[in-house]
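Give me the fold.
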Amino acid sequence: MAVLTGLHAAATPERAALTEANAASDAQSDEALIEDEIRVIGERRPLTLEERMRIYRELARARDLYSRNEIDEAFPLLLKTARKGFKNAQARVGHIYLRGLGNVEQDPVEAIGWLGVASAGNTSPPIRNYFNDIWKRIPDKYVDSFEEVVEEYRGKYGENATGVVCELHRPLRTFVKQLTCYFEQDLPDTVREPLDEYMDGDERRRLIRENEERIRAYIQSRRGLPAQEAETPP
């Protein structure tokens, strides 16, 4: 009920819709921000190994802080890694904005935007179900406006925009699949991580081969190429 109340109270036409009236009142600054976004997206370059490793460490640090309910310490790292395309971070940022946790001000637009991109594509059922549950509570008159917000966030922070690929896998001796996200160029190595030390060599090689084939086909499908033309990613 608290979430529903927050959406009703905060989702005003001006805030939820990002209306033309608001845009016109701040046209120059908005245009500058849009130009910056275009410039950033247009110039996205492959990250170096050192940069990617730093982001992975930030992701792990954010997860640890969040698990200990240190929201204010976790939030900057969560937001940074969410912008890089990591879905668990995106979902946590959305939840923090939705509830107004820590010192973060409640913001339903940011919440729906981040939960919307986190729930798209390859994601975990709990994230998708959480977004769908929140979405059903949005008053009908605001749905179109929030759809635009979700589309914008997915365009800026989704897999195609960030180069991050997400996979669901089931760790050994468990029945629950887990969501893992990595930069595309790291996947051939990182798919080995879910394979624990108790597996024999033949089983490990078989699962590695199956994982790499599945990932290769997925990447090629995103590029519009048939899977049989795929080569092992660098």
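The longest helix spans residues 201-222.
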